[in-house]
Amino acid sequence: MIVVTGAVGFIGSQLIEKLNIENYNDIVAVDKFDREDKNKNIENLTILHKIDRGIFIDWLEENAASVEFVFHIGAKTDTTLFDVDLLTKMNTEYTKSIWKICIKSQIPLVYASSAATYGLGEHGYDDDEDTVSKLKPLNPYGQSKQDFDVWALKQEEKPFFWAGLKFFNVYGPNEYHKGRMASVVWHAYNQIKNTDAMKLFRSHNPDFKDGEQMRDFVYVKDVVEVCYWLMHHRKNAGIYNLGSGKARTFLDLTKAVFKAMNKTEDISFIDTPIDIRDKYQYFTEANMHKLKSIGYSKKFHTLEEGVEDYVKHHLQ
Q: Is the pLDDT of residue 229 over 90?
C-alpha cells in the first residue's frame, strides 16, 4: 500500500492520479473528507482505503507492515493563519509522529516542506542543509515547516530513505477549493473570465516595478513527477528544493493566461493588502542543482507551457 496524506487536496489528489496512471491502485488516502468540493478531486480515482487524518497515526502504527511508501503531503497551508499552536500540532508534531513510525517499520517517507521557510531569501534559495537552521520564515506556516526540517536534520535516527520537498509556487488542476491561497494563475483565469481584465498587486519595494515581483512558479504535474521518481530512487536522503528553477514575473504569468484564453491584455494594479504587505516575498527562485545532481533529469514545463495546459485542458 502507498499512503498519500492530504489526499483530497491540490497536490495530493494529483499525486494519486499519477500513481493510478502508473498502475499503483493500492492507495491509502488520508484526509478529513469533510468538504464536498474537495472530495470531487478523488471521486474518479482508484483508492483502496480512505482514512480520516484524526485516526491515521494509530492506523499507521497498526498497518505499517503493509505500507510500502508514505507521501505526507497534507498540512495546514494558510500563510495568513496565525494560530501557532494549531500549526505546530498539525504541521510539525503530526509529521514527527509519522517520521517515528517510518523509522520503526522501515518505511520510506517523502514529506512536504515549503519555500516559505526561506523568508525574504536573506540566505538565498539553496537547499544546502548546513544553512537550514539559519532561515527566517515570514509567517507561522513557514515556521512550522522550518521547525520540522530543523528537527529532522538533528535526528540521529532517520527513515532509511526520506526526502523533504520545499515546494515553491505550485499551480495547476484541483486547486479551486483553496480560495485566497489558490495560485495567481487560478485567480487570473477567473478574474479575466469575469471582467476581461486582471488586477495585480502594486510593488511596495523600490527595487521592483509594479508587476515585476518574481516567483518560481512550478506546475503541479512536474511536482508529482518528482515525487514519483523519488519513490523509485530511494537513496540520497535529504531536503530538496522543488521549483521550476526559473523566477518569472507576475506580468509574465498574467500575459500567459491572457494568451491561453485568447483575450486582449488589460492589466492594472492595486495596493498589496496591509495584512500581508510586510511579509511579502518579492523574489523566489529554487536552486535545482541538488535534485539534478542525484539523477533527476526530466524537463520541467516552462511557465507558458504550464499555463497553457492548465487553462486549455483543465480550467476551460
A: yes
